[in-house]
Amino acid sequence: MSSSIYGKLALTNLKNNRKTYIPYILTAILTVMMYYIMDDLSRNSGISYESLHMILVYARAVIVIFAVIFLFYTNSFLIKRRKKEIGVYNILGMGKRHIARMLIVETMVTAVVSISAGIIFGLIFSKLTYLILLKILNYGINMDFEFSKETLMYTLVFFLVIFLMTLFYNLFQIQLSNPIELLHGGSQGEKEPKTKWFMTVFGVVSLGIGYFIAVTVDHPLAAIQAFFVAVVCVILGTYALFTAGSVALLKGLRRNKKFYYQTKHFSAVAGMIYRMKQNAVGLANICILSTMVLVMISTTISLYVGMEDVLETRYPREFEAKTNVSTPESDQAIERIVEEELANAGVKAKSMLRYHDGSIAALRQGNGFALQKFGNYGVDDVVEIWMIPLEDYNQTEGTKDCLGPDEVYIYSTGEVWGEDTVQIGEQTYQVTKELDNMKIAPKDEQRMVDGYYIIVSDAEQIGEILRRNYEDSDMQPDWVEQMAALDYRLTFDLEGKEEDCLNVMKVMKDRIEREVHSGFCEGRELSREEFYFLYGGLLFIGIYLGSLFLMATVLIMYYKQISEGYDDRERYQIMQKVGMSKREVKHSIRSQVLMVFFLPLVMAVLHISVAFGVITKLLAILNLTNVPLFLICTIITVIVFALFYGIVFSLTAREYYKIVN
Known about the structure:
- This is FtsX-like permease family protein.
- By secondary structure, the chain is of the alpha+beta class.
- It has helices at 3-16, 18-42, 50-91, 96-137, 149-176, 179-183, 197-216, 220-255, 257-260, 263-305, 307-314, 328-345, 390-397, 459-471, 477-484, 498-515, 524-577, 582-597, 599-621, 627-660, and strands at 319-323, 348-365, 368-371, 382-389, 407-412, 421-424, 427-434, 450-456, 487-495, 519-523.
- Among the domains are: 1-188, no CATH class; 348-495, no CATH class.
- The protein is built from 20 helices and ten strands.
């Protein structure tokens, strides 16, 4: 056979199958483009912030995994639809070796068009993406447009490998099949599936466990570990329920005579039972992808929009100066520098608080705390303790209280303590008062680790508690003394022009960290840029990956409708021949499409509704405790996504009707 015939056949086949190949090629182009842009962005030397660079690198890794799975998955739709056509070629005399050459040419054409167009569009839109990222970050940085040869090479090699892998998979499928199997390849799965009760129960249990974990988690630290377990359980449960549970549900509807014996229902239910085996995975994929889009976009938008709440939660006051090893000299040096620089800048301090504290990680055990030398933040009941001398408490609160050596006040940032005594290490103290509030620490039940403030009679008592705890370790004596030393904190808000306030904070930070031993400063405005880079980067990635997953969702919907249209065409034609009117056929089609098409959306909304609580705990770790804001962002995201989902439904359903009619 002439070698030119393979090229002509390949081009003819691509043209004849344009309804399936054009969306596939367009999606492949977009995937190549989005990988190129992300890879180029992650290699840009102008990104000096490590947190933003790591976000981009992780996003690139997600796109790599997505591209492999998604292009393989969509390729399976194509080869399934082509099996009958390839079987005809085989019966007409084309050997499998000739068919393989034809498929090689088709893959080459698809790969060349997809990769070259994707890289060209990647080059074109790279600069625009940079500008969008800079706009989101809200800060001007030196991130010029750079052409990366490495990005070009990696993109070319990576997607060539993917297309080669899909080609080998297709050739393997053809090699294993005989002509009869190929002719019936597009009709596989027409045998009525059995009700798999074990898988159905497994799906219900898995989903139930995932939901239970999401609903019962009440601590941000526990939410980190529980969230990933819940996600795995929900994914497994979703696939099991769509695969086996959907068949059980449809058969249950078939047993319901009032529902089933209606013209618009019986043909739809019967048809779905027979084809659910091949549709279940696609529906589950749509559900999981939809859930991912909703979660990513709603959380990242919430973090970005709630930036002010985040900063105020993280920094209750605008500026804080501290030293980790408090001495009279270092304390006085901090106060002197602050006083001098505020006077020079003409800026006033307000709500100023000065106090010493000794902090340590501990485990909550009954009515006491087992002290830990070093924080083990993998334990659910870990807490943080701050011990403050009574003198400093009286100064900050404006009181004149007295305490005995074995007496303490206690204050919890979360739930009330509710005990008459508290054991700290080996020592037990009488709780003479449980405080309702403290100026230095507002109530915050959403914080990552529960915090307890314990007011003791004097600073020496705090040093002794810390010293006893660290003496049992292998630390050198001088390190023990340093760890047992109290911190000194000076925190306040500023009153003056915004520019003057920012400048004086920068000057104070520079001087304190240079001139004071163990001096350290942080503040709301000093950290604003860093938070914008972190949360702005997350928003950018959320929208970027959300768009990618949304594209995948649309394509899977499209292929599902096209595939079902070809499968249903003959069945509905037979129904019309035996007396079913076109109007009844249309109602039956609408009933089937609506029933199946919107089921993944309903499940996705249910998933995010149940996960709402655990997501709020995770957001609290990122200092966003504004639950109403996250609720509003989630509702708006769901509404917008549902509208988009409906538009996609109307467009794909139109193609379905054309094929069936």
